[in-house]
Amino acid sequence: MQRLKKIAKVLGFSLGGLCLLLLLTQAFLLRGTRGKSINQANGPRTIRYSEIPTILIPGWGGNTVTYNHMINHYQDKSIAQKVMTVWVSPRNHIRVSGNWHGQKNALIQVLFDWNYDASFHPQVSQLRHVLIYLNQHYGIKQTNIIAHSWGGTEFMHAYMGSKRLQRYLRLNKLIFLGVPVEESLSDRLPYHYLLIHHSKDKNFHQLRVQMKDWQLNYPITIYNLMGSKEGSRLTDGEVPHIQSEMLKALIQSQSMIKYHQKIYANTTHSQLHSRPMILKEIEQILWGKEN
């Protein structure tokens, strides 16, 4: 009996230590990237400085690391500056560090306290609350979006499912990095519009209906950037191209949306937010003078 008590005590301490370690690890991963003010005079001459902020949305399991390299790269070169971190809990409780008051080329980092669910749906509600909060409390009326993987899927559903956001938060440029908008089609299929009739993805068909009902009366540009794993032409290793390319079919009902697509060879899913050539592409899209 005494031996069993000792074993139970050791197990209790071990489990407690493991839980503490996991909590500390999660806290570290959700610390948020450090912001740094930029000096426009030191920035490249090719850069245009705009008051339209850019919201960064991570995908499944994403955390500070997701956009850490991107943010630091742009800050070091005085191209853009991280001004806010917004954390949101599974119960839609929002915490904020920093402030947005019209800083030029501002980056706002969104972090989910927990985004390891089997479905993206819990984060849809959380993200919708974040977007409404930023609009209401900080007066953000227009924004760019950079979203990786399920982060883009969540954004589409959060925005298209809210008449309030459609009315009060205008979208400018959307950059999707390996975002699956349709998840039932095989990775062996090349894109063509008629596949829309073969889709068994209820979430995708819900977006189709919402997209058709959207009273869009201003221009938006979408950039759909995908990777192609070495030795494969149709996937980045995690998201098949077809599941991202179905975005073309989804937006066909909206004449005000311009669509651009690019596939990067030898680029994995996780490299889409860190490869130098992609960071340069994003820089040009959002802040290049000729855009």
UniProtKB/TrEMBL annotation:
Keywords: Hydrolase. InterPro entries: AB_hydrolase_fold, DUF915_hydro-like. One of its GO terms (molecular function) is hydrolase activity. This is Hydrolase. The lineage of its organism: Bacteria, Bacillati, Bacillota, Bacilli, Lactobacillales. The keyword Lipoprotein does not apply. It comes from the Bacteria.
